[in-house]
Automatic annotation (TrEMBL), chains A, B:
Protein name stated in the entry: L-erythro-3,5-diaminohexanoate dehydrogenase
Organism: Catenuloplanes atrovinosus
Gene3D superfamilies: Medium-chain alcohol dehydrogenases, catalytic domain (3.90.180.10), NAD(P)-binding Rossmann-like Domain (3.40.50.720)
EC number: 1.4.1.11
Pfam families: KDD_N (PF26370)
Keyword ATP-binding part of the UniProt annotation: no
Presence of the UniProt keyword Glycosyltransferase in the record: no
Domain L-erythro-3,5-diaminohexanoate dehydrogenase N-terminal span(s) in chain numbering: 8-150
Keyword terms: Oxidoreductase
Enzyme class: oxidoreductase
GO molecular function term, any single one: L-erythro-3,5-diaminohexanoate dehydrogenase activity
Amino acid sequence: MWVPGGRRVLEPVGVLPQAAWRLDAEPEIAPDEVRVRVERLNLDAASFRQLREAHGDRVRDEVLRIVAARGKMHNPVTGSGGMLIGVVEEVGPEATLRVRPGDRIATLVSLTLTPLRLADGLARWDGRSEQVPCDGHAILHGRTVAAVLPDDLDPRLALAVLDVCGAPALTARVVARYSRPTVAVLGGSGKSGSLSLVAAKGAGAVRTVAVCPDEAEAARVRGLADEVVVADARDPAAVAGRVRADVTVVCVDVPGCEHAAILATADGGTVIFFSMATSFSAAALGAEGLAADVTLLIGNGYLPGHAEMALGLVRATPGLRELFAARLRADCAS
Amino acid sequence: MWVPGGRRVLEPVGVLPQAAWRLDAEPEIAPDEVRVRVERLNLDAASFRQLREAHGDRVRDEVLRIVAARGKMHNPVTGSGGMLIGVVEEVGPEATLRVRPGDRIATLVSLTLTPLRLADGLARWDGRSEQVPCDGHAILHGRTVAAVLPDDLDPRLALAVLDVCGAPALTARVVARYSRPTVAVLGGSGKSGSLSLVAAKGAGAVRTVAVCPDEAEAARVRGLADEVVVADARDPAAVAGRVRADVTVVCVDVPGCEHAAILATADGGTVIFFSMATSFSAAALGAEGLAADVTLLIGNGYLPGHAEMALGLVRATPGLRELFAARLRADCAS
């Protein structure tokens, strides 16, 4: 049976590209592939945090080492990647991806499954931001999801929105199943968190609650949530003492938030885990141990129409757009 | 705020017992607690497999070391535990758990959150079975779920059923949401897998498919599934080439089955992950990378009525009861 992207898997043989240890990033494309000239990587927040903490100022060397060794930017510690923007360079005659040479696109699938080779030694990256300017190439295939970048938004803003566009789409779908639910978002002042808050309101949430780690973060999200609570999302007692939700969305990129989310969710409710720092066993056993009849969802990054929905929310919500713009300014200044 | 079992957490302070590195297993109980004289542990399959592979014949020493160090049987590698049976020894005056001294019970919450102390050095365990005869004590609290063992079933059989009783309950709930679905179970010949197959049929599955690693396993489950497929659940092409399901249930206790499950599931379908060997990021990024619009569920081990439902399925299905009995005989003989 044909496996999407399977041709590029070098080892172990037979797995999908995301599960592979090493991909083939040769620039020559097969008839159904597309080659992209890469301009910028947007590292996954959990991955960037781990790399910074483990490697400090040598983070650039580590990213180069990973990409050279694996043929993709797949952090072996966090298991996560990120996404990229670039310009379509060559489209194979049998490619089903709807792009043309010259299109500036963002990939909406993870870097963990995208063949990538870097050509510039990341000379323009100072290692202090998740956004990594670079030169190199990447290979896409028919089941890759890519969005042509809109003309009306700063490409870096669009990239940051598209990176997390699965979160608002799935949040809206889940919220719409409940009648007048309360929705809590742990990490509500972040990118996926703030988008999820706005999406929840649009999908019928009667009340939205943003949980933030400190007053500075709380200030960012006021106006986008009905209520803002300052609490450590890793502290079940602190969170559940102040928040009771039908749908709880976890967007905090640090480990250990599973139990607070479960304890804050009413029986019959749903927890959606978008953080790549989520522990499967902590979530499963935590709910069991609390005798909590809650649905636990792994945040699938793909839903049909997710990119357009997220960009639409940012266009329609000045506060959201300003939050993203401020985060980008902070990234560049830090 | 009160945190269930929080009093027994020694480090780190403030987390729930399951997240704790170390619990206090002192035998003296608080007014709302229950002390159980432990007769037998049933180690989680993924945990037992890891311990056997890593420690071989010294597995007994390793279990003793873990319980002494952590105050609970919480495998630090797999993050999983198991469950226990024992006899209620003392019930605090404010305990809400409905048990009386002398009741023989099974805990339906994980050993990863149950304070435990062993008193016999596991002298009666040969280290070759997940079922560990022992003497010691454990502490339960009001939000622990425990079932009084039924009189009509061998206690070891009942324990094996109760250990995985969350799987058939959640499978049935999900299957009932679809109209005439096909349901595939990866690892269909195992304990949680076979129960899930029978539960799926009872909940309206028009067709059930068991995926097994070899002919010997396939033979165990014939009669309990409409179709039996021999394929490696870690091989996406092998599985998705032969199985197409609306609901896919993952009960294989080895890592690397996420992508096969996702690829075998139709758009709009659901994958339920019960295996503790599941990788959160492999599941989330795999679905994104395949542009698969499937719901990904973390198998919560608790649903109201799950114990009674699973025991009822075993009582009503001779083939299921025989499969469990054969597994117990094999465990004892190996």
